[in-house]
Amino acid sequence: MKDQRAKLSLHIKHPERDLGAICDKLGLAPKFIWKAGDQRRTPRGNRLEGSRSSSYCTIELGPTRRVSLARQIETALGLLQPHRRTLRRLSSTGGRISLFVGWFLDADTGDALEHHLLGQAADLRVAIDLNVYVPERLKKSR
Q1: In the 8-state DSSP scheme, what is residue 81?
Q2: What is the residue extent of each domain of the chain?
Q3: How crowded is residue 18: how many other Cβ atoms within 10 Å of its Cβ?
Q4: Which tens digit of pLDDT belongs to each residue from 89-123?
């Protein structure tokens, strides 16, 4: 896995619920969190015009690591499995839960997400948002 690194975070969005209670149930601290109706702010806390249209939080799931993408997703889903009921209830009331994957590639590479892994994510109602980043030198060589 020397040609790739990945960083995962959990993103939760809901049209109206206070997601602080969900973070507490998960036992995970959010990096960013706001409620529907809150004043909009920059990441540094400066006020912006308008208010938040929905509730949202981001929870980091560890540092960027040179471990296979599939292994990192498997670990994250294992962390969420005990909270299946909470996640499914949140999804059924209009929420969206996703694993945001920052996948940083140093060369042409790949990984396989097997059906059991995708099935586990689907059962938890967790989407996988894959964002691939390649260095400028690779972009220019194509």
Answers
A1: G
A2: 4-39+51-140
A3: 14
A4: 999 999 999 999 999 998 888 899 999 999 999 99
